[in-house]
Amino acid sequence: MFYVRKLSKKSNLYKIRDVSLEKVEADVLKQELGTSRNTLSFWKCDDMSHLADTMKAIILSTTSIETSQFIIVDDELLNKYEISIDETELGATGYKGFDKLHVNFCDLDYEKIGAILNMIREISSDKTRIPELKREQVKSYIVEVRKKGLLDEEAIRPELKDAIDRYCSSIA
């Protein structure tokens, strides 16, 4: 199994990769690894051939249409760093039928956050584990979901709905 997360800023990937663990900026931690109830949100992907669906679910859980940097970790890394997952919380996504892809990395503490930083550092040189979608690709994914009738406009955030109306309005 693979686990995917969208970073808030592409540059943060390099701010994690290019410094020692203890020198990662506090703002980067807050932006990329901000927790709630000692959990961190990820989306699962059973194999890489289904990565596009996972990315669509993530995109349709955000607030804007923008270039998006993703990170992908796997069960092997979770086991190595003893990170637990909880699959009980459905994801808030506008991609109908894909809310069950959501998982939380759970029981996190300072040590586990350090482990997640190490996982990001380990995958950062493997292009298949740090895919980037340009803004046009993000728009095309949203248009594709809409054309297939799988866009749940009630579930998307108002900011994203406004962006979809603005940038994808010519699409039925």
Number of helices: 7
Oligomer: single chain
When the domains are counted, the total is 1
Q: Percent of residues in beta strands?
A: 15-25%
| Topology pattern, helix = H, strand = E | EHHEHEHEEHEHH
Strand order of the largest sheet: 4-5-2-1-3-6
Question: What's the end-to-end separation, in Å?
Answer: 35 Å
Q: Kindly state the number of beta strands.
A: 6
**Are there runs of 5+ residues with pLDDT below 50, and where?**
none
* Nearest-integer average pLDDT: 93
* Helix amount: 25-40%
Question: Biggest β-sheet: count, sense, barrel?
Answer: 6 strands, antiparallel
Structure class: alpha+beta
Estimated radius of gyration: 16 Å
Task: Set out the fold topology.
Blueprint: E1 2-7, H1 10-17, H2 26-33, E2 40-45, H3 51-59, E3 68-74, H4 75-80, E4 84-86, E5 102-106, H5 110-123, E6 132-133, H6 135-147, H7 158-167
Antiparallel strand pairs: 1-2, 1-3, 2-5, 3-6, 4-5
Give a quick rundown of the structure.
The protein has seven helices and six strands; from the N terminus they run E-H-H-E-H-E-H-E-E-H-E-H-H. It has 172 residues and is of the alpha+beta class.
